[in-house]
Amino acid sequence: MRIIIILFLFLLSYTAQSQLDDRFRFGSVHKVEERSSYSIFYPLNKSTYKGVVVLIHSNQASNPAVYGNFINKLLTENLIVIYPSFQSFAQSNNKLDKKFISESLKQAYDDIKVNYEDIMSLPVAFIGHSMGGVIAYEMALGQISVPKKPSCVISVCPAEVRHHKLDMLDYNKLDSYDVYLVIEEEKDKFYRRGTGKQITSELHNAKRKKYILHKKSEDSDSKHLNFWSHNKDYSSKNNTLATYFSKRLGKTNKVDKEVYWPIMIQALDCAFSRQDCDTFRTQ
Questions:
Q1: What homologous superfamily does CATH list for 2-280?
Q2: Checking DSSP bridges between strand 152-156 and strand 179-185, what pairing results, if any?
């Protein structure tokens, strides 16, 4: 029985690690190496690049197709997207995660320089989901070596795991002029720990920050962003078992496109061009 379970998990992992759908490529560069792979996605018109987004995935989501539609949204905003795939299946380790993220970002920036020499002149934002929501702050605090400091840090449904915990963060090292956004869900299994609210409350130096607790409504029921809509127009996560069963049950969820995406784009606009900054004034 144990062998059958292991084989099932292996097949599930293999499917999740499949090659990215071409409709999300937009000239991406995809390097595949053990625990240090990364993808780069370019908007079609490089003369209008507004900035760089480093998208830090959740636990066991190293395939960028998991966030394919959200990546596509960022590309339409003329943002370069770097997706470090730093984690092998079902494995996470604090030192190794940090090591491979750092190596991936350095290599990704070197790759981008070949196509776009002015990469270092562009502002950068870190967006992390779940485990990545905590790692994004580790990066911003200098615990992980990065090519350039962020102007914006966004943490979506942040979740502590064994190797990435909030009590290891020194928020006093964060710059006050940056834009910080934390989003949680009322029905999230991790919300009971108050992870997102705890992060926001520690941002004492932040001049621009915002905390959002999204509450369930009839047309937007989500739990930790794992139960996304099967509808590709609304979903960032289309290739999960939860999505398959939600499709069978006829359930949909527009929460990402209608709630999360607009406020994240506002945060990026504020950080990169000082537009829509009134939304992020600290109360």
A1: Alpha/Beta hydrolase fold, catalytic domain (3.40.50.1820)
A2: parallel
